[in-house]
Amino acid sequence: MSDIDFETRTKTVPKVERPKLHKVILVNDDYTPREFVTSVLKAEFRMTEDQAHRVMITAHQKGSCVVAVFTRDVAETKATRATDAGRRKGYPLLFTTEPEE
Ligand code: NFA
User: Fold this and answer.
1) What residues does ligand 1 touch, defined as CB less than 6 Å away?
2) Taking a C-beta distance cutoff of 8 angstroms, is the pair 19, 71 a contact?
3) Which biological process, per GO, is one annotated for this protein (predicted)?
């Protein structure tokens, strides 16, 4: 009656979900030199000169450009580091993040 039932097993259904990805977005401004934006993209996002230049030009022409997608923590850390690199030089360079649809 009050014996502990050692035979009962609770079957756990493993729920494996992909972490949602977050975009890092480069925002255009009128002051940050193009070469500096390109150098930050190369350093923080491991882009080649060519990739970095394309992203910089796209943001320059369209107002913003998706740089890459990462898990939320990585996206936020990289956006902060890249924005800080500009701030240290006195530039208003801005990287933001937003969740993917
Ligand atoms: N618009 C800036 C310029 O003409 C370059 C730039 C590109 C800045 C992309 C920020 C983002 N110097």
Assistant:
1) 26, 28-30, 32-34, 37, 56, 59-60, 93
2) yes
3) protein catabolic process
